[in-house]
Structure formats: structure tokens, C-alpha cells
Please model this.
Amino acid sequence: MRWWERDPWLELAQVMLRNPFRTLMSSLGVGWGMFMILITVGASNGLEEGVKADLGSRVKNSAFLWTNQTTMPFKGYPKGRYFRLQAADVAHLEEHATTLEAVAPRNQLGGWQGGNNVSHGMKTAACGVYGDVPAYKDIDPIVIMEGRYVNQKDLEDRRKVAVIGKRVRQLLFDKNEEVLGQTIQVSGVNFTVVGVYRSQQTGEDAEESENNLFVPFTTFNHAFHKGDEVGWLSLLIREDVQGDTAMAEVLRLLKAQKGIHPQDDRAFGHWSMAEEHEEMETVFGAFRWVSFVFGGLALLAGVIGIMNIMLITIKERTLELGVRRALGATPRIIVVQIMAETLALTALSGLVGAILGVAALDALDGYLVMQEGNGIFRHPHVTSSVLWTALATMTVLGVFAGILPAARALRIQPVEALRS
Amino acid sequence: MIHLQGITKSFQTGSHTLQVLKGVDLEVAKGDLVAIMGSSGSGKSTLLNVLGLLDSYDQGSYHLGGQEMSKLTERRAAETRLDMLGFVFQSFNLIGFKTAAENVALPLYYQKVPRKERMLRAHALLERVGLLEWADHLPSQLSGGQKQRVAIARSLAGNPEVILADEPTGALDSATSHEVMSLLQELNADGMTLVVVTHEHDIAEGCKRIIRLRDGRVETEGHVG
Model:
């Protein structure tokens, strides 16, 4: 086929438009398959973006580690033992861990996410109160709006200073009141405000984060009688190290340090952003594959529909094809003609489906943006590589669908023309 | 132009073999107008298929325009049909969804003639058969005689050496039959070689020679009048 010429296309149009309704109905399947692939892949992308956005702006290589009960006896200790991390463990990690960028011990008043009465003059608020080291700012980035964050000197001198969240400022101070240098009371202990921050997260997470205040870790332990106890650890893993590798090293060091059985996997709890991300990549990668496979199967069903209609038309066109052969069309011309007809039918339907799919995703995205949704479903879209892969799959299937009809057409002998 | 010698052809039907052509000798000179007659079963359709390279033969030799035609590949056969032969069929066999002009231009399309030239030549051929004003009509809008004239124009399009007509008037009434026959005679007068298979005596009488087939052999061969 000389595809750049007008005639093959004209001929194709003539053939397809002879029975437009049948052509439409039988080629619908490919468009539908294409539409399904794009919609499902797009939706899973939207879900992925939503979930990832929900994880917030936490640094991708951050991790958290806390202690549970031991579940295996070791070195004379029974199982079910409670144990705590201590300042010495932090020092041990800082000294020996090779996979970490930073180790930040943390403590919180009233246990994890407990509310506490914080007051300034007559105003009181229930806030999260944390003891922190400067390194924590690298792990959970916050934006300092006024003043500064906790620094090394604060730690060394056990200064009674506090960095408060935006929301805490709203609750304890008037709008235009100068806060830096002011004194607040935290569970009866006075602290001087040295900074105000806001969160980089959005929505509820941000509100919660901005309702916290940070004081130096050493001050916290002294003021609230924690000794050298560490509530939990925030870790920053080196960027060139896999999350699970780093976690394995940290656990090995800490187990040795705390007299925990090396196989006691439940003695420590941990959560790492990297692992979470890796897991999510895997889950959504699988999602995309499933979408692709099911969409592909729909596409296959559609292509088989086209193959069927081609087989039927070839039966109907026996005389025509015989006449063409008698007039001098070579077998090659016939094969190319039938293959081209099948492929064109497939492509036409598939392109319509693809355009509708992309348009539908676009419309949905537009709607979500308009709703200012910060939900778990954002920006449904398909990447161009998905689009191209889908189109390529369709083309390959279209070519395969043409083989049988072309072979059938080839069996029609030119003598057919005389047998009428 | 056409030289057949001892052509045999048999068909295998189940367990027994049916010998259809039992050694046909035939000579058609350039510019001849030959009628092939014979009752059904005489082998005249098979002979036409062999002449038209639509079917193979078992033994003998077939020279067309000086070239041996044995054991052609399908592709060579198609190319030879395209360049040397024109076909006229009993039931016209125009392609229904193509206009008269497009039908006439079809062999030229296979000869890779550019579209403009193709349409020009198709219109010229339609003018020659007196159907220029019907060029853009579909076959369904034409009468039987008109359809056959379009088919004749199509058979001329590839500039063939020989036109093979299979019962060209078989589907037409007698008045139209004579019109079509006159057209074939005109073409012959212009130098075209034609082989016409027919069972109608008055059509055969319009040819220069009549060859009668009987039971797979040439029975009689003689000049008309």
C-alpha cells in the first residue's frame, strides 16, 4: 500500500462506510478498552498522588524508632521485659552507625500526642510539648516564621526556651503582640519563647503540627524529671542507603546495646518514610499493572471483535476480492489491503477511546481542582509513556487481528470471479 | 498471440479423477476475434480459466505473447494478467461501492499509475464505450448493458494484448447483447485480439472464427461465413 497516497484511504473509507452502523458497533470494543486502560491507570495515579501528598512534606529518608516489650528471653532476661532508650544509646548510634545522617532523640509530655496545659497570663491551651535537638528540624522540616529554632547552645546550657507553633501563638497571644522574649508556662515550668514556626504539611496534619511547641531536649528531661530517658528516635538515613539496610544496622546496634535477642524483631517498633514510599511504589506499580492487564484484556476483546467483523466482510466480499485478483492484484496487495483495513479500524476506534479517556481524566482533574480537594484522590492523569504503551499495544494487537482475515482473503482464488 | 498445444487439465473429485481438458490445441493470432462454443461440461470454462491464468494446467504448453506460461507463481500470474489480459465477465463483476470511473481505473491502480492520469484514462475509456456522462454513477444506477460496457472499458484499461470474455452477453436481452457485441467488434476492428466464450449462436456468428469444444477436445474449428 502506498499509504501516502489518497486512494488506499479513500478505498478504506468506502469499505467502512458501506455499513457504518456495523462498523461502529464492531469497533466500539477497542475504543472502550483504550478508554478503560487510561481511566484505570489515571485513577490509580490520582490515588497515588493523593496518598503521597497525604504523607506530607516529611523528608523522604526520615525514619522513627521506639521501644516495645521484648518477646524473647535473652542473656538471663525474661521475655516481656519493658526497656527504654537512653541518652547513651543515642551517643552509641551517633558513634557507630554508618548509615545515618542524623539521630534525634525525642520526648513528649504525657506520652505520645497527649495534651498539656500551656499558659501565658490568663490564656491557656492544650498543646503537644516536645523535647528536641536541633537535628530534628532536618527530619521534619518546619518553617520558622519568627525568631529561631532550638540550637546546640540551648541544649548544652539546658536553657528554658521554647519554639511554638503558629496555632499556639494564636491561642496564647494577641494578634499583634510581640511573642519573642515572652514567658509561657508549661506544666508549671517557665519557658522563654524564642521562635514561632509553621508546618509544611497541609490540612489537619498542619493544624496538629502547629499546635505543638519544642523545648531543648536536655531542658525537657531536666524540667520534667525524665533523667536520661529517650521517648523515641527520629532518624535521618543517608540518601545513598536503602531504608531497610539502615534500619537493620540501627536495630543490630541497639539490640546489642540493650541486651535484646538478635532475632527479637518485635522489641522495637519502627516506621520509615523510605520503606513506606518503597511499599507504596510497589503497591501502585502493581495497581498500574493490574489496570493495564485488565484494560489490555478489554482491548484484546475489542480487537477480536474487529477481527470477527473483518472475517465476515471478507466472506461478503469474496466476489470483489476474486475480481480484484482476476484484474491483477497480487497476493501481496490483497494482504496489505486487508491488514491495513483491520489496523485502520482498530486505530480509529482506539484513538477515539484514548482521546475520550484523556479528556475524561482532564475533566475530573479540573473538577477536583475546582473543589480544592485535598483528599486522597488528586490529579488523576496518565503519563505520556502510559499513553504510548497503550497505543503501541493497540497497534500490535491490530496487526495480529489482521493476520487471520488476510489469510482468509488470500484463500479467495481469482476463479471466484467467474463462478457467479 | 495465444498458442496452446496439448493442454490437459483434470480435477480430483473425491476418489476419482475428472479429465476436463484432454489435449487442447489452439492458435489465436493477433487481431483475431475467436468464439469458443460448447455445451456445458465441454470444458470451455476450464479452458478460459487456463487462458486467463486463473487456473493451472497439467500438461502441454501455453505461450502467451511468445512467453511460456507454465508453473507461474501467483504473483507472476497476477502481474501477467494485469499487463497482458483484460477480462469481461458474464455478470459484469463491477465493484459495487465504486463509481464507473473508479471501476475502470482499478487495473491502472494496480499498475501504479498516478491518480490523475488514471482518472483521465478511465474517462477516456468511458467516452469510448459511450458512457462518459455516467462516470460518477455507481453500478447499481446503471442498466445491464451499461454495466457490461463499463466492464469492457475496464478490461481495456490495463492496455492488454488479449481480452477474454466469458459469456459477455449471457445476462443481457438480445437488443443489448447486439450492442455489446458491436462494441467488441469495434475493438477488434481497432486491432484488439479477443476470445469470447459463448453458447449463443448469433454472438458466435459475429466473430471471425468459431472453435467448438466437445468433451475436452477441439471438435471443429472454422471461419465464420
Chain A touches chain B through 26 residues (CB under 8 Å). Residues 69-99+238-266 of chain A form one domain.
